[in-house]
Write a structure and sequence with these properties.
Blueprint (H helix, E strand, L loop, with lengths): L1 H7 L1 E12 L4 E12 L2 H14 L6 E13 L9 H19 L19
Antiparallel strand pairs: 1-2, 1-3
Amino acid sequence: MGRRLRQAGRKTTVVQLKLKLADFTLLTRQTTLHEATDDGQAIYRAASALLLAEKLKQKVRLTGVSAQSLVGEGGQLPLFDSDRRTGRLNAALDHIHDKFGSAALTTADLHETPTRKRE
């Protein structure tokens, strides 16, 4: 999602999580970020926190994450330098994905190992 935001020249300030449960009940939760971002890891962490906060008693049929309250890139500059480093990292990741495909590279927290399989 971060890559698509960067391609569109947008950042998000709100991350929304949708869950469809086994009985087709639809839950929608959202969180407002401290600052606008186009960083996929920041969006992932926000969506994960929303999911972990839910006490699910049923199986989940469908999940969705969306970016809300989009803003242009010309916002306030960050106080600390870490945002520039993240921007360079995301640009490198985008370049690798453009050249080799979206499955060429993933982060360690999403990588499956023989001892850790997704359920």
